[in-house]
Amino acid sequence: MRVLLLSLSLLVAAVGASCSRDTTALTSDCSSQCYEGRPCIAFASGASCNATTFGTCVTDANSSSSSNSSGSGDSCAFECFTNGPNDFVANEAVQFSDYVFFIPYGSDQSKWEANWTSSQASTVDSQLATEVDETQFYPSESNLVLQNLEPLTFLTATTAAMFVGGTSVWGVRGKVSQVKLSAEFLSSNTQLKNITMVNLGFDVDPPQSTFPTTNIESFKMSNCLLSTYPADLEFMTSVVHIDFSQNYFKDYPVKFSHDTMETLNLSTNALTACSGSFPNLTNLDLSGNTLTEIPSNIFDMPKLTSLNLSDNSFTGVALTTDQVTFLQSLETFTIDTFGDVSSCSESAQVKISGVAVCTSTGSAGSSSGSGGGGSSNVGAIVGGIVGALVVLVLLGIAFFCYRRRKTRGKGFGTATGFSDPSQGSARGGLSLWNDQELLSLQVNPDDIEDVRKLGTGAFGVVYLAKYRKNKLVACKRLKKGETTAACSASAG
Q1: Which residue ranges are tagged as binding site?
Q2: Which has the least CB within 10 A, 127, 222, 247, 302?
Q3: Domains and CATH numbers, the chain
């Protein structure tokens, strides 16, 4: 009977000491044997701990309850970490400012990596092999073992947290360590100023309240397979530096632009546009995208000093004089092409950073090929049409006046077209003798011989005369005082 009771007692003790955790995760719900403020790995039931660099395996029957534990009777395996060779927590140096954790690649591939050819995969592996293995400096656990990131709580002195897939911060877009972020992953750490997540693929886009927003100054999620921005970004109103490079974004929405921002890295995405207002932005990287025109808001960034637009899909960009001046004034401007410049003459081209671009007239706010979609080409066409119509109207008016003038000249009944001199006086003293067209028709008085007086009018005396001795003409001699003596003839 005693033997039976002892056996039952041992069985109950063994059951009570089992681990009820069903997932292995990086967590702050650690063994009491782990160091304060340093996340640990809590292993699922049945999983064993294989210590990595800066890690120590422990089993604790008195661990704090995890999200999956059944009570204080759990006895789970944990891997406790120090933060690296310079962490002297064992000597009671508990506080630290920067936390870094690496998750070396496992066997799971993203859908982008799965589409690589064997040659591409081999090239990437070769490139990664040349990078320094940074797990020799920071704690880590393989993605084969670790896929879950539970809520973490850091000491108040910890202001920066970095999580990296692979063994190096350097990575290739599409190759990631696959992880699952728990809700409120870092949100309780309002003291954090810098958050970095690199080479990590998530099963779903990070939901709101995943990250703290109050004091964030630098936020980086590079090569995280993102096509949707984290919702928390909208409320990071103190953020200064943002890096979303090597993702799959198509635009940068206005609601994620903050006046505090000074640097924005959106390189190697799928951008076709970039919106938002950035009055204090100094550094903008849009390289490696699919932009066909320069976003117009760039020319409204008064503090911009560095701009990278290389490796895009620009087609026939045309810049105004103001825009050319803006780009030339930048301390650093990188571009490989503005697109085809054959649509404009060489005289209408300028070079910026050694690259030719067509120019157009107008102010920076009415860009021709820069974010206004082709508006400059439309404006040039409309302007040309309006100009042509104005010229045609002016020519029509001139022709009408000329015809009317000729008609009036004939109305006075003289072959020369002389007008009544009194009319010239009435128009402000203009003299018919200043009309070169009429003067060219003037008759030489030596060719005229008076025959007899025909009559006297208000402005002169009319004679019957012979023109060149064989042609009778009527000759009108102007009265003295009106003008000097002159003669005009008409065929008699």
Answers
A1: 476
A2: 302
A3: 249-373 (3.80.10), 412-491 (3.30.200)
Q: What does the block give as tokens for 196?
A: 């970095």
Which carries the bigger pLDDT value, residue 16 or residue 146?
Answer: 146
Q: How far apart are CA 286 and CA 269, in angstroms?
A: 8
Spell out a b/e string for 81-103, using b for 16 or more CB atoms within 10 Å of the CB, else e. Answer: bbbbeebebeeeeeebeebbbbb
Average pLDDT, integer, range 42-59: 94
Tokens of 266: 């959106």
pLDDT at residue 245 greater than cutoff 80: yes
Give the position of tokens 């008195």: 62
Q: Would the pTM count as exceeding 0.85? A: no
Q: Which residues are annotated as a binding site for ATP?
A: 476
For residue 380, pLDDT over 70 is answered with: no
Q: Which residue has the tokens 């009429």?
A: 438
Whether 74 shows a pLDDT value over 60: the answer reads: yes
- Please tell me the distance from the alpha carbon of residue 391 to that of residue 179, in angstroms, as a whole number: 70
Per-residue 3-state assignment (H helix, E strand, C coil) for the chain: CHHHHHHHHHHHHHHHCCCCCCCCEEECCCCCCCCCCCCEEECCCCCCCCCCCCEEEEEECCCCCCCCCCCCCCCEEEEEECCCCCCCHHHCCCCCCEEEEEECCCCCCCHHHHCCCHHHHHHHHHHHHCCCCHHHCCCECCCCCCCEECCCCCCCCCCEEEEEECCCCCCCCCCCEEEEECCCCCCCCCCCCEEEEECEEECCCCCCCCCCCCCCCEEEEECCCCCCCCHHHHHCCCCCEEECCCCCCCCCCHHHCCCCCCEEECCCCCCCCCCCCCCCCCEEECCCCCCCCCCHHHHHCCCCCEEECCCCCCCCCEEEHHHHHHHHCCCEEECCCCCCCCCCCHHHEEEECCEEEEEECCCHHHCCCCCCCCHHHHHHHHHHHHHHHHHHHHHHHHHHHHHHHHHHHHHCCCCCCCCCHHHHHHCCCCCHHHCHHHHCCCCCHHHEEEEEEEEECCCEEEEEEEECCCEEEEEEEECCCCCCCCEEEEEC
Q: How confident is the model at residue 87 (pLDDT cuts 50, 70, 90)?
A: very high
Per-residue confidence at 364, pLDDT binned at 50, 70, 90? very low
Each residue's pLDDT tens digit, 292-334: 999 999 999 999 999 999 999 999 899 999 999 999 999 999 9
Pick the more confident residue, 470 or 190: 190
Lowest mean pLDDT among 12-16, 147-151, 256-260: 12-16
Q: Are 466 and 453 in contact (CB under 8 A)?
A: no
